[in-house]
Amino acid sequence: MVEIKNLTKNYGHNAALRGISFEIEDNEILGFLGPNGAGKSTTMNIIAGYLPSTSGTVVVNGFDITEQAKEAKQCIGYLPEIPPVYPDMRVEEYLRFCAGIKGIKRPDVKKEVESAMEKLHITDMRRRLIRNLSKGYKQRVGFAQALLGSPKILILDEPTVGLDPAQVAEVRALIKELGEKHSIIFSSHILSEISAVCDRVVIITKGEIRAIDTIENLEKSLTASTLLNLTVDGEEATVMRILKDIRGVEEISDVEISGNRISCKLTLKEEGVRNAVMTSLVANNCNIVAMNMAKLDLEQVFLRLTKQSEKPSTLEDLVNETPDSSSDGDDHDDLDDMPDNPYDAVE
Q1: What pLDDT, on a 0 to 100 scale, did the predictor assign at position 334?
Q2: What's the CA dihedral at 58, 62, 67, 73 to 10 degrees?
Q3: How is 203-233 classified by DSSP, letter by letter?
Q4: Are 293 and 274 in contact (CB under 8 A)?
Q5: What pLDDT does 7 receive?
Q6: How far is the C-alpha of 16 from the C-alpha of 117, rounded, in Å?
Q7: 115, exposed or middle or buried, with CB in 10 Å at 0-12, 13-18, 19+?
Q8: Nearby residues of 336 by Cβ (< 8 Å), 6 or more positions away
Q9: What span, in angstroms and rounded, lies between the C-alpha atoms of 262 and 290?
Q10: Is residue 48 within 8 Å of 92, Cβ to Cβ?
Q11: Would you state the pLDDT for residue 10?
Q12: Residues 5/21, Cβ–Cβ less than 8 Å
């Protein structure tokens, strides 16, 4: 288990993390989502022990990452967004080198390296110089070093970057398989990957956590009772006037007009407003062609949550908030979180 409590990270006057807290359970695959500059890579680097936090604690399998760094890091396998490979080394040579750094006993090195290469399907690349590998294969080599020593915790930052669709499917299957014996925190910008493999998700923006829940619960909480797909026949000006005058219709979006037919999506304050929509349109001789409650997917949930400018205090507050596209802070690039040489931060 990994416990993150009140974690903050400041860069001068800029706060990359603002007191975030969450846990990764045993044998759980936790998705970590957020826009660029949200603090994802900063969080992962702190959990892995690459960067110190300004305040707060990270406990890995009972070991504090600051006070008991050696013991904590032995429980972690880390794949950064940019794999830490040495281009002038051969694949097998590099993995043996990493095994030595991780303190794997000499009799076990060969077995660990062979197992990691087999899982990532790079055994036939063992003699190749890393500099001559494609980006996808370099990513695989980086993933292989994270698996050495069978660490209890795996931290994967964009593990499928540079992979072709077939390789992405293989990595997804591998992550699901590893989730049976490992706790995994998995960051990705490809939301279909998160949906395919993760048990829960953490959504973070501007250094603050917006939501922690299963994908199913997030979709239900934020969408099922608030969105209405509507198709109606009538004069455009009349239909739009009617909809805007209905109390409880908070937003009209995705408007499409084809002749005398109008399709749109309504954001409702509550599900009961649907009856008012139907009554008003019928009373004004507008023919309702189709009307059904909508369900957002993870991508739409993510966009809605990350557009919020303030952290809600309760789930009810979150559900009742109206999306706000404004931004009140400077964007902070995750890559700026890393020191010039990330290994300088490892004690």
Answers
A1: 43
A2: -80
A3: EEETTEEEEEE-HHHHHHHHHTTTEEEEEEE
A4: yes
A5: 94
A6: 36
A7: middle
A8: 11
A9: 11
A10: no
A11: 93
A12: yes
Distance CA 18, CA 43 (A): 11
Q: Are 157 and 185 in contact (CB under 8 A)?
A: no
Q: Is the dihedral of CA 194, 199, 205, 207 positive or negative?
A: negative
Q: Which amino acid belongs to residue 318? A: L
Six-digit token string for 94: 């590099």
d(CA 18, CA 6): 8
Crossing angle, helix 236-245 and helix 273-283, to 10 degrees?
140
Q: How many residues does the chain have?
A: 347
The parts of the chain modelled with pLDDT lower than 50 are 224-225, 309-347
- Contact assessment for residue 22 and residue 202, using Cβ atoms and an 8 Å cutoff: yes
Write down the pTM of the prediction: 0.67
Cα separation values, 315 from 48, 138, 210, 211, 221, Å: 30, 41, 10, 8, 8
Q: Tell me, what DSSP letter sits at residue 103?
A: T
Q: Where are the alpha helices (DSSP H) in 182-292?
A: 191-197, 215-223, 236-245, 273-283
Give the C-alpha separation, 37 to 335, whole Å: 8
Cα 241 to Cα 262: distance, rounded to the nearest angstrom:
13
- C-beta neighbour count of 149 within 10 angstroms: 21
